[in-house]
Amino acid sequence: MLEDLLRQRARELARPLDQTRPAPLVVVFQLGQQRCGLPLDDLARIEKLGPLTPLPGTRPEVAGLVSAMGRISAALWLGNLLGLENGQGSHGLFLRGESCPLCVDEVETMVRVETVIPWGAEPPVEESPGQTPDGILLLAPNFIRRRLAELRKGTPP
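-> structure tokens emitted (157 positions)
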């Protein structure tokens, strides 16, 4: 699956530039039963994670320790950060400028988001711009970064 994403991204980068800005690419993944998406431009990398080593006594957002890119790092449950369901945490998403992986379930694909359906009422996740016609919940990277900063400061969610 990861190899397919890398091949697709390589094809996108190899295309000649045109004057019109294409619709953004979004990486689609599972958080429990919810399909979610983050803009590819906001991700530094995606990794299949090895086993998580639990850290007793930590906040619920902390999934445990994991080896990523040859370094031991605290991994965080993206679902807990956002108030959504967590799953198995088989993959880690690394936001640009952040060193800890955000645990998500299977990374599915990348899609171009041409249309966003805004929320008519309260969004299921703060600052979510909306969802795609096929039900992908679009997440706001800046909101996730603020939640990470609050976590580092010890501010309650």
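The beta strands are 25-31, 34-39, 43-48, 62-68, 71-77, 91-95, 102-104, 107-112, 130-131, 137-138.
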